[in-house]
C-alpha cells in the first residue's frame, strides 16, 4: 500500500461503546488497496492488515475491527453498500457501516428513469438512509427542474432528494444537516456525477481531487481510484467511491420497495407468487390493461426483478439465505432509526 497513511481521529458511535469497553482496542478500516487494509485505532495509530485477515471474511472500507496479538476480528456491519457487476461475476461490496448513502446523479441525467430506479433499489438494499442528490442543478432551467421533480417522484418513491449546486451552494447545507460527528456518509454514482465536488463543498475545503465532464456525452473521468474514509470533523466521515459504469441490483426486496405501486397492486393478485406475466387473476396486469398502471412501470419492474432473481440464483443457497437474513436485519435497523 503506497502513500502516507492519513491520520483519522476515530469517534465511535454509541453502539460500539460496549465493544470498546470489552476489548479495549477498536479500529476502523480507512482504506483497502490490492487486498490489504489500512486500519486506524482510536489513538491515531495506523495498522496495515491483510484484507482477508478477519476470520476468513474480507475487509472493506468502513469496517470496524478489534485486534489482539495480531488477530483481527471484524465487527458486525450495520449496513452494506453493494452492487452487481457482470465484470466480477458476482456482487461487489463498495462500502460498509454507512449511515447516509448519497446517490449522486447530474441534473443532465436526472430524468433517466431506469438510472433512478437502479439507484433507489441499491439505496433501499443497503440498510443506510438513501438520499438522491441531483448535482449541477445551477445548469437546470425552471422547466427542467419541474421535469426532474416529476421523474424523481415517479421513479424513486419514498427516497429523499435534494437539488444541489457546488457553484451556488444550493442544497449543500441541507446535505450537511444530515451528518454529525459520528455519522458516516458514502457517495455512489457514475463517473463525472460530481461526487468529489460535493465532498469538497460539504467539507468547505479541497479534500478530494475533481475532474472535468465531457459536454458532448456528460461522461467524466475517474478522479477517485480507491475507496477511502475521509474525516470531515464535526460533519463526520465520508467514503468517496470510484465512479461506476454498472449499477446492478442484487436483491428482490429492494425492487419491491422501489416499485411500491406495483407491490401494492400485487397484494390483490390471486396467487401469492404471481410473476405478473400471464397468470389468471393478476391484479397488476389488470391495472396495466385498464390504464391504472402505466405499461412502462410493469416492464421496468419485471426487468429489475429478473436481474435481482438472477443475482440471487448465482449467489447460491448459503449466500442467498445469508442475504435474506441481512435484509431482514437491515429493515429492522432502518425502522428503528425511523426510515
Could you please describe the fold and organization of this structure?
The protein is an alpha/beta fold. The protein folds into 3 domains: 55 residues; 161 residues, P-loop containing nucleotide triphosphate hydrolases (Rossmann fold, 3-Layer(aba) Sandwich), CATH 3.40.50; 85 residues, Ribonucleotide Reductase Protein R1, domain 1, CATH 1.10.40. Helix 2 links the parallel strand 8 and strand 9. Helix 2 packs across helix 6. This is Small ribosomal subunit biogenesis GTPase RsgA. InterPro entries: G_CP_dom, P-loop_NTPase, Ribosome_biogen_GTPase_RsgA, RsgA_GTPase_dom. It holds the Pfam family RsgA_GTPase. Keywords: Cytoplasm, GTP-binding, Hydrolase, Metal-binding, Nucleotide-binding, Ribosome biogenesis, RNA-binding, rRNA-binding, Zinc.
Strand order of the largest sheet: 10-9-8-11-15-14
Biggest beta-sheet profile: 6 strands, mixed
CATH homology-level superfamily of the largest domain: P-loop containing nucleotide triphosphate hydrolases
Structurally, the number of domains stands at 3
Low-confidence stretches: 213-224
Helicity, in percent? Answer: 25-40%
Pfam families: RsgA_GTPase (PF03193)
Domain CP-type G: 88-247
Protein name: Small ribosomal subunit biogenesis GTPase RsgA
Family: Belongs to the TRAFAC class YlqF/YawG GTPase family. RsgA subfamily.
Amino acid at each position: 500500500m503506497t502513500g502516507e497513511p492519513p491520520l483519522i481521529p476515530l469517534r465511535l458511535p454509541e453502539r460500539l461503546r460496549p465493544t470498546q469497553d470489552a476489548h479495549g482496542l477498536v479500529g476502523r478500516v480507512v482504506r483497502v488497496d490490492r487486498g490489504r487494509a489500512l486500519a486506524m485505532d482510536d489513538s491515531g495509530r495506523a495498522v496495515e492488515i491483510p484484507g482477508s485477515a478477519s476470520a476468513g471474511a474480507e475487509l472493506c472500507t468502513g469496517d470496524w475491527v478489534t485486534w489482539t496479538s495480531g488477530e483481527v476480528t471484524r465487527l458486525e456491519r450495520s449496513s452494506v453498500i453493494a452492487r452487481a457487476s457482470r465484470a466480477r461475476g458476482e456482487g461487489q461490496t463498495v462500502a460498509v457501516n454507512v449511515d447516509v448513502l448519497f446517490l449522486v446523479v447530474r441534473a443532465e441525467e436526472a430524468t433517466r428513469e431506469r438510472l433512478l430506479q437502479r439507484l433507489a433499489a441499491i439505496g433501499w438494499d443497503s440498510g443506510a438512509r438513501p438520499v438522491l442528490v441531483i448535482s449541477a442543478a445551477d445548469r437546470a432551467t425552471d422547466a427542467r427542474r419541474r421535469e426532474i421533480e416529476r421523474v424523481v417522484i415517479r421513479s424513486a418513491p419514498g427516497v429523499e432528494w435534494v437539488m444541489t449546486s457546488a457553484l451556488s451552494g444550493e442544497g449543500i447545507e441541507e446535505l450537511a444537516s444530515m451528518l454529525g460527528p459520528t455519522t458516516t456518509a458514502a457517495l455512489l454514482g457514475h463517473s463525472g456525477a460530481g461526487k468529489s465536488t460535493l465532498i469538497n463543498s460539504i467539507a468547505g475545503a479541497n479534500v478530494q481531487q475533481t475532474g472535468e465532464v465531457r459536454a458532448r456525452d456528460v461522461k467524466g473521468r475517474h478522479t477517485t481510484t480507491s475507496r477511502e474514509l475521509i474525516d470531515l470533523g464535526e460533519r463526520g466521515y465520508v467514503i468517496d467511491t470510484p465512479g461506476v459504469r454498472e449499477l446492478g441490483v442484487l436483491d428482490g426486496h429492494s425492487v419491491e420497495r422501489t416499485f411500491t405501486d406495483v407491490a401494492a397492486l400485487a397484494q390483490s393478485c390471486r396467487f401469492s407468487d404471481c410473476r405478473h406475466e400471464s397468470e389468471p387473476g393478476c391484479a397488476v396486469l389488470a391495472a396495466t390493461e385498464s390504464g391504472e398502471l402505466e405499461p412502462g412501470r410493469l416492464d421496468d419492474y419485471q426487468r429489475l426483478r429478473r436481474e435481482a432473481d438472477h443475482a440471487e440464483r448465482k449467489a447460491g443457497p448459503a449466500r442467498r439465505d445469508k442475504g435474506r437474513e441481512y435484509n431482514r436485519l437491515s429493515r429492522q435497523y432502518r425502522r428503528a432509526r425511523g426510515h
